[in-house]
Amino acid sequence: MIKYRIAQHVAFSPLLILFFTLLGIIFHFIIPITLTTHTLRAIVAGFIFIAIGQAIFWYSNKYRALAYCKDGVCLQPVGSGPYRYSRHPKYGAYLFMIMGLGVIMNSLILVLVVCATFIFLTLFIIPHLEGLLIREFGDTYIEYKKKVPMWI
Fold first, then answer.
1. Which GO terms describe its cellular component (predicted)?
2. pLDDT greater than 90 at residue 25
């Protein structure tokens, strides 16, 4: 039952992040508050954020697969690759990509969505997921939490 709830959580979280992002894009077009003058430098910076996010995402998936994860459920906590530095590198990857989109669109609202999503993840989503992981993996996950920070 716990494994099923973890899999649900893993599938639900990106959808929630996507919802917040789409909401931010809609509000950007309703109330277009800009970050700066739109320059080629800003666009390049945005694409760099997106590329960093993609790299972290792919790197995280690679090490998650090495931990024998199937259908969103792992047989052990992932403790290698990017998971050595952050317990939730995929969430960080999503935030980098959304930040890049916000910079490319020159949207203060989308950048604020990144901040709000970070706070929401930190206060609600991640603690709930970690509670499930502690129930699933017990002391192994508690030790992992002591060694690795939630965010970098």
1. endomembrane system
2. yes
The Cβ of residue 28 has, within 10 Å, a number of other Cβ atoms equal to 21
DSSP code, position 84: G
pLDDT score, position 5 = 67
Dist. CA 98–CA 107, nearest whole Å? 11
Distances (CA, A) of 38 to 23, 51, 71, 103: 22, 20, 42, 9
Query: pTM value?
Result: 0.87
Copy the structure tokens of residue 104. 């490319």
Helices (H), the chain: 2-30, 40-66, 89-105, 108-120, 126-137, 139-147
